[in-house]
Amino acid sequence: MAQTDFIKDIAKYGLENDQDRLLASLNELIDHAKKSKKINFALQLQSILKDSIRQHQTNGLLKVGSSQHQQREDDREVNEFILEKLTSDYQFDSLVCTDSVKEELSYFIKEHQALDVLHKFDLPVSNRVLFYGPPGCGKTLASYVLAGELEKLMLVVNLGAIVSSKLGDTSKNLAKVFRRAAAEECIVFIDEFDTLGKVRDYSQDHGEMKRVVNTLLQLFDYLPSSSVVIAATNQIDMIDEALLRRFDVKINLELPDESHITELINKTLKSGLVELDTENDLPSIVKSCKGLSYYGIQRTLITAVKRSVIAHPRTNMTKPRINTDLWLELVRKEKQQFSSQ
């Protein structure tokens, strides 16, 4: 059957209020999407289906304190702590990094693709990843790549909502998010992890921070192998040593060298819609970009592309050319801002 046939069946059974056939058709469409390599579409459908079933179970009159009522309350509370719930289209080709980083990520993915085999031999499965390094060096992008390669939903934690001034609430909020991740077998992504996992200073009274770190240690230990936690930080030295030891994989994403700067530029310009006004200037631009982050380099390039395209005469049918002098000036300004941070 074609995808359109499944959609027509879903519409038909939905209008007829035939729940059994509707669910069967939805599951068939999900299977069809997976076989057609439309993984993100399949994951989104699965998420909608799970949420709908959960909501359907809570409809109607419920006695106070019932399990359905509690589930509905938990869902409402957990959603406050999730900034975004997403699927990712990013794959390895999207990531510019060293071969050793790609190798580490590849092994991690292979473990999750072989969960049944590892469980058969009673072997542990790595499911806790820490990305660290300077700002703008791809920690968030690497997380999206993992989500895309693992074909899992990712819950992006809302730190502003998680962290509470009320005694003990931060730990409770974290526990709710991890329970959701365990139930949905998805990824929890925590950016600026050092905000939560700060070193416990026993010489001073920081009882709440110690409580949060202890909670994280327990949540990490009891996280099911089918779920994953990814943390990112610019300040790994601020994270408690016991928490650092809990991470199965710790990956340092560093500033790019000249070869990776060249790769980033080529990937950004791979569409071929624009070109440099002087190809010979590329080596000097690459040298000028050294010391900037991936994000900073790409931002200057995209800005140069936009300004060059806008300045390009609309009547001229030739390919727009990037003004390399403009780009070098943007790189110089970016370096000034980067060095002042």
TrEMBL record:
SUPFAM superfamilies, alphabetized: P-loop containing nucleoside triphosphate hydrolases
Pfam family, one: AAA
Residue ranges of domain AAA+ ATPase in the record: 125-257
UniProt superkingdom: Bacteria
InterPro entries (alphabetical): AAA+_ATPase (IPR003593), AAA_ATPase_domain (IPR050168), ATPase_AAA_core (IPR003959), P-loop_NTPase (IPR027417)
Gene3D superfamilies recorded: P-loop containing nucleotide triphosphate hydrolases
Molecular function GO terms recorded: ATP binding; ATP hydrolysis activity
Protein name, UniProt field: AAA family ATPase
